[in-house]
Amino acid sequence: IAFSMYASGNGYILEASIPWSTIGVTPALGKAIGLDVQVDDDDNGGTRDAQTASFATNTTAWQNPGVFGTVYLTTCSGPVNQPPVANAGSDLSLASGTTSVTLSGSGSDPDGTAVTYSWTKVSGPAATITNATTASPTVSGLTNGSIYVFQLTVSDGSLTATDQVQVSVAGTSGDPAGVITCYQRVSTITVDGTLNESSWNVTRAVSKNTVNTPNNTVTFGVLWDNTNLYIGVKVLDASLYNDSPDIWENDAVEIYIDANNNKLSTYDGRDNQFIKGYNNSALFAKLSVTGVQHAWAAISGGYSVELSIPWSQLNVTPANGITLGFDVGYDDDDNGGSREGQAVWNGAVNNYENTSAFGSLVLNSNTGARFGVPAEYIPDDETRVSVYPNPVKRGETTIRINGLKNTAGLQVVNTSGTVVKSQTLQKQEEVIDLSGAAHGVYLLRVQLDNRQVTRKILIE
Known about the structure:
There is one protein chain. With 460 residues, the chain is mainly beta. 2% of the residues lie in helices and 46% in strands. It has two helices and 35 strands. The strands form nine sheets. Strands 16, 17, 18, 19, 20, 21, 22, 23, 24, 25, 26, 27 and 28 form a 13-stranded mixed β-sheet that branches. It has a four-stranded mixed β-sheet with strand order 8-15-14-11, with no helix packed on it. A four-stranded antiparallel β-sheet has the order 32-31-34-35, with no helix packed on it.
């Protein structure tokens, strides 16, 4: 680094020359570099009396590049090339059975330069992107109960910008993506890992990759009674290992619970992580609890895991409509040593310390939907439920259920899967207070005994 400092008429001047190789940069037109220039001022000897900066707004620049500004390399005679803008469009929540969708991206360049587009899949099960170099490609091969994230990259030929969109497909149960309805058990659950009781419906897929691309097929189900929450998981995996002292580095199932459903970015005293490993009699719990029953069992093509967690240990009083933050994941070790991959149902790679991306588990006092439909609900429920006005104005709307004989459960769920309203409907027509909900799109779910009807509403 070469520099020179010399006095001027009323101060001093510094010139410096820094080789690109010294800072590890290959210069190019439009190249962005973090930079800040600061001046210390000592007016009376001793310590400095003041400091000014070009970009930083605090005194941490000496250790925090995050407060630097940005400069762009350009020619002395030309304008600075500004980066383009990318917009991948609004997140999408699709109905069960939807296998394709057209994304609605856009891009622009402040300098007026023509831009190009490129779409890629960031996470989720396999899917095909057609016309990936256009603003609005078609995505096909979507599967029920899955969450996908697609990324749009916009380029002006020199600089790029990115944006992401999440696409959620509801499961066959009728639950929105990121939500699972937990029905009451019918038969007594014996926690032995076999999942052979008639109450179990272990069909919800765990397919959101968080570490590499694991090759397992994993499904889970949930049940409850007045004493316990039950979780059952099936893992189909041809290569099973249990050789690491860290249970999460082996083949294992992970259960995450946010008992007060506040979905914070850190764990509080109501959150926990459980890990049950293949061929392992122990259970890992992030927060020590008692009374949890757990077991694993060998099944054809893999293994299964079964847990019962006392409500008393979660400090939850179970009741219809109670919602927990919840997620299920699995670790995949194909050759011994550390794991090669991990996937979750709804959350993220940092589920072990951050509950904000968990899904929602909603208790339903009915028994599982696979056990038949009462004759009084066999008529077309889709035509029996109406909501008005929709869009919702002034914070309230009215729901009407023609021919309601008993009661019905109501939930209003936002696009993140969080239940913002839950109540029991006792009349054919009732006013729903939504004054506490933010503006946006919501799913209104009505539980008619063992059938569920979903309506999309807009709160203005």
